[in-house]
Structures are given as C-alpha cells and as structure tokens.
Task: inverse folding
C-alpha cells in the first residue's frame, strides 16, 4: 500500500486559517467542512487531522500523526519527543510575565514568594529555576490576565502579541520568557517512504516561505543607469534587462527582499528609475 502523510492542524483558533492557507499555497487542495475532524487532500497523499493545538505535540509523538503545525510555545511546554522542522513565520507571539501597573518591579527577584497565574507551568518553572527565584505557580487554563484583578495572583505569565490585553487589564509586561511562532513538527524515526513525502512537503513549504519575503520589481531606467541599477538590484543571478520601444530606455526586472525594499527604492530613484511596479512572488522554487 502506498503511504499517506498524516498532518495535524489546529481545528479552530489563531493558527487554523494560516496553517490551511500554507498547505493550499503548497499546491495541495482539500475540502474541509468545519464539523469534520479529518479530510483527505485531493492531489497529494496527505490526510489532515483537525485537533486542539494542545493535543498536537502528543499526537505527533505517539504516531497518530506524522507531522503537525503548532505554536513553539505549546511544543516547548509539552516537552513531547518531536522534532521541529521549520519555523513558519505566522502566529508570532511571546510568553511574558506581567504585573499590575502599580507594582514597582525592578527584577525577577521581586516575584520571590508571590503567586503567579499561568497556563504554561513548565516553561515558567524552568525560567524561574534558571534565575534562582521561587514563586508560587497557579495553573489556570485560560484568561490568566484576569487573575490579579480578582485577587487570584500577584502576577501572570501569558502569551502576548500586541500587548492590548495586558493594557486593558491594567498589567505591564516585565519579562519575556520565550519568543514563539508556528512551527512544523515531526515524529522522529519515520519510514523511508513517509520521510520522502515529508521532504516533498518541506521543499514546497520552503519555496512558499522564501517567496513571501521577496517582491518582484519592474522599472524603467535610462540605458546609462543600467549598470548602477544592476548593482542596486542584484536579483537571483543578475537582473533581466529588456529594451523599451523608445530609444535610450530599458525595462529592468528583478526580485528584492521585502525588508530591504524601501532602502532600495530610494537608491533606484536617485539612479533615475521611473515607473516602478512591485508584485508579490507566489513561489520561489530553486
Ligand atoms: O482550542 P485550542 O486549544 O486549539 O486553541 P487555544 O485557544 O488554546 O489557542 P489559540 O487559538 O488562542 O492560539 C493558538 C496559538 O496561537 C498559540 O498557542 C500561540 O502559538 C499563537 N498565538 C499568537 C497566540 C497569540 N498570538 C495571542 N495573542 N495565542 C494566544 N494569544 C492570546 C493571549 O493568550 C492573550 O489572551 O491573545 C491575548 C493577547 O493578545 P494581545 O494581542 O492583546 O497581546
Ligand atoms: Zn489550546
């Protein structure tokens, strides 16, 4: 029997849409109806399981699924024997300690002997131990940020992305324990056939990831500036240069990294570039 890859995704939550979109951008199509726990991809030997994020590391470690997409925070908290294959660039957040705004905080030792509420007891204990601080950890399953206002704890340790939840609960962030994002995880010791499917999927995921950080750029330049522009826009090998229908001008095509984009644009303008168009890159394969 031909082997099928089994991938666990979050059923419904912050990672669900981006995880499903990533698989679609890998050219793998599937019909997912909300009520279903499982579906089969139409054009790749892949079965997708939809689970609670907290269960994903365990299911992958136990071999119920071969791969999973889940937050690094969950992977690290659960300590399952799984391997992180790729960081996926979405679901970014940090696990932080926060205290009430009026708390005069100068260092972690200010938490000595106090009560801290969290859903991440293992990561918090590890962090406090590594700094030699002893605090009382109260495990709660969600909404840790409410704990200080109802007298349940003196501080919290929870995920933060924009910081607005902390702000609206009168808390301030004082320590970051972990920076997290969604990751692709796998069970070690896969069969050769399954491993080869994992490699194919990883190759596609990498191509999609690379493409996301690049933009395709087209611009018109006077011929005497082609050399300068080619130095500014090295592209993958070198830019494509094509003559325009009017004399003395060329169209230059290349790719640029998004985070360098605005610096590059200023240099191109100084070199006499005009009519700059910027397009998304769908995949960057080899
Ligand atoms: O039902 P299931 O168990 O599957 O989902 P869940 O409710 O446990 O998790 P979910 O969907 O909330 O989050 C899934 C994953 O998204 C987390 O494990 C993180 O890896 C990632 N992620 C990214 C976040 C956040 N950003 C985030 N902001 N997870 C939770 N939050 C919460 C945080 O707990 C706090 O309540 O959002 C609030 C803070 O947000 P800001 O923007 O106000 O700072
Ligand atoms: Zn969860």
Result:
């Amino acid at each position: 029997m031909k082997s099928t890859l089994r991938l666990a995704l979050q059923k419904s939550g912050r990672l669900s849409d981006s995880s499903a979109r990533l698989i679609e951008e890998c050219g793998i199509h599937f019909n997912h109806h909300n009520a279903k726990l499982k579906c089969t991809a139409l054009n790749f030997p892949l079965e997708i399981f939809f689970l609670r994020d907290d269960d994903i590391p365990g299911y992958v470690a136990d071999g119920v699924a071969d791969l999973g997409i889940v937050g690094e925070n969950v992977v690290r908290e659960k300590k399952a024997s799984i391997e992180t294959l790729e960081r996926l660039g979405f679901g970014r957040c940090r696990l932080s300690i926060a205290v009430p705004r009026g708390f005069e905080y100068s260092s972690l030792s200010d938490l000595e002997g106090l009560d801290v509420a969290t859903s991440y007891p293992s990561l918090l204990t590890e962090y406090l131990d590594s700094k030699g601080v002893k605090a009382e950890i109260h495990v709660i399953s969600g909404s840790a940020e409410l704990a200080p206002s109802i007298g349940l704890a003196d501080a919290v340790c929870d995920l933060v992305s924009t910081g607005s939840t902390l702000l609206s609960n009168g808390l301030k962030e004082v320590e970051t324990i972990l920076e997290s994002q969604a990751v692709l995880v796998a069970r070690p010791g896969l069969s050769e056939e399954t491993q080869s499917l994992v490699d194919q999927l990883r190759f596609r995921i990498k191509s999609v990831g690379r493409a996301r950080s690049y933009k395709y750029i087209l611009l018109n330049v006077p011929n005497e500036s082609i050399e300068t522009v080619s130095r500014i826009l090295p592209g993958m090998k070198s830019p494509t240069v094509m003559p325009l229908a009017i004399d003395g001008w060329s169209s230059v095509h290349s790719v640029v990294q998004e985070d360098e984009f605005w610096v590059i644009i200023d240099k191109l303008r100084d070199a006499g570039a005009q009519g700059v168009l910027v397009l998304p890159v769908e995949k960057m394969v080899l």
Q: What stands out?
A: Residues 192-212 form the longest helix (21 residues). Residues 215 and 261 are 8 Å apart (CA to CA). Residues 10, 13-15, 52-54, 71, 73-74, 91, 93, 158-165, 180 surround phosphoribosyl ATP (ligand 1) (CB under 6 Å).
